[in-house]
C-alpha cells in the first residue's frame, strides 16, 4: 500500500509504525547503493533497437529532477524526455540481462 493511499484510515498503521516504515524506505542502503552501482556502469549507446509498440507511463518526480533530467537528455542529443527515458530504461534492462548471463 502506498503511504499516500486514499484508503480508509483504519487500513493505516499506527503513527509510530508508519513513521518507522517511511524512514526505513527512505534510508534503505540497499536501494541507494544498488542504484549508484547500476548507473556507474550504464551504457546508453548499447541498447537493443527493438521495434515494439510503446505504452504510456506516468512517473512522478520533483520539478528540479525533471529539469535536471531534461538538461541531461538534451546534452546527449535527445529532444525530449520520452525518448531519453526509453533508452535509459532499456539500458538498465540490458545491463541486468547481461549480469544474469555472466
Description:
With 102 residues, the protein is an all-alpha fold. The protein has one domain (9-101). The protein has 4 helices and no strands. The longest helix has 21 residues, at 81-101. 2% of the residues are buried.
Topology order in helix (H) and strand (E) letters: HHHH
Secondary structure tally, helices: 4
How many strands in all?
A: 0
Main sheet specs: none
Give the N-to-C terminal Cα separation.
Answer: 35 Å
Low-confidence stretches: none
Question: Short description, anyone?
Answer:
This protein is an all-alpha fold and 102 residues long. It has helices at 15-26, 29-40, 63-75, 81-101. The model has no long low-confidence stretch (mean pLDDT 76).
Provide the fold topology.
Elements: H1 15-26, H2 29-40, H3 63-75, H4 81-101
Features:
102 residues, mainly alpha, extended
Amino acid at each position: 500500500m502506498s503511504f499516500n493511499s486514499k484508503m480508509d484510515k483504519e487500513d493505516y498503521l499506527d503513527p509510530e509504525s508508519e513513521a518507522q516504515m517511511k524512514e526505513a524506505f527512505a534510508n534503505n542502503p540497499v536501494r541507494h547503493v544498488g542504484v549508484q552501482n547500476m548507473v556507474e556502469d550504464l551504457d546508453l549507446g548499447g541498447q537493443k533497437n527493438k521495434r515494439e509498440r510503446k505504452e504510456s507511463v506516468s512517473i512522478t518526480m520533483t520539478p528540479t529532477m525533471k529539469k535536471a533530467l531534461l538538461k541531461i537528455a538534451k546534452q546527449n542529443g535527445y529532444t525530449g524526455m520520452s525518448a531519453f527515458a526509453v533508452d535509459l530504461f532499456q539500458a538498465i534492462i540490458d545491463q541486468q540481462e547481461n549480469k544474469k548471463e555472466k
